[in-house]
């Protein structure tokens, strides 16, 4: 086969491959507010969280006893008790929330499982008690409670800060848990 034919053959194969590759959702898009599927919250302690600092303004689901929404600016508030944190999906906003959770050190945070990133090394790996990798890719919900048709587009993990929250991950049956040993 000549080089010209070979290049044409490879080009056709590559175009077909990339055309048929699974499309992933962007982490920066039209919507930055995705609600956690209720079964995840229920599996982590049947609504045993004291605070959700990233709740929607009119939440269709109960995630915690107390909530802050965008109008309250949950980052500027004092956090108390066991926190549920599903921060904005936007990777440029997420770091601020990761810092606050690592400092608070009592709760569970839901983030994309991009644990090779600088932020993960700073605020997850050396700070948390354990990490649960969710089985499958969850379908988040819109702020009106309607389930999204497409899944999250990436692997999601739950990061536990504190022994009680690690125990909640271990008992949840939501996926596989990696435990930090010091």
Task: List the SSEs and their pairings.
Elements: H1 3-20, H2 38-43, E1 51-52, E2 66-67, E3 83-85, H3 91-104, E4 107-112, H4 118-125, E5 130-134, E6 156-161, H5 163-172, E7 175-179
Parallel strand pairs: 1-2, 3-4
Antiparallel strand pairs: 4-6, 5-6, 5-7
Helix pairs in contact: 3-4
Structure overview:
By secondary structure, this protein is of the alpha/beta class. Helices cover 31% and strands 16% of the residues. The chain has a five-stranded mixed beta sheet, sandwiched between helices. It has a two-stranded parallel sheet with strand order 1-2. Helix 3 packs parallel to helix 4. It is globular, with a radius of gyration of 19 Å. The termini are far apart. The N terminus is likely disordered.
List the helices and strands in order: HHEEEHEHEEHE
What strand line-up does the widest sheet have? 3-4-6-5-7
Q: What would the average pLDDT be, to the nearest integer?
A: 77
Percent helix among the residues?
25-40%
Specify the biggest β-sheet: 5 strands, mixed
Distance between the termini: 59 Å
Radius of gyration: 19 Å
Low-confidence stretches: 1-28
Q: Helix count? A: 5
- Residue fraction in strands: 15-25%
- Coarse shape: globular
Secondary-structure-based class equals alpha/beta
Number of strands: 7
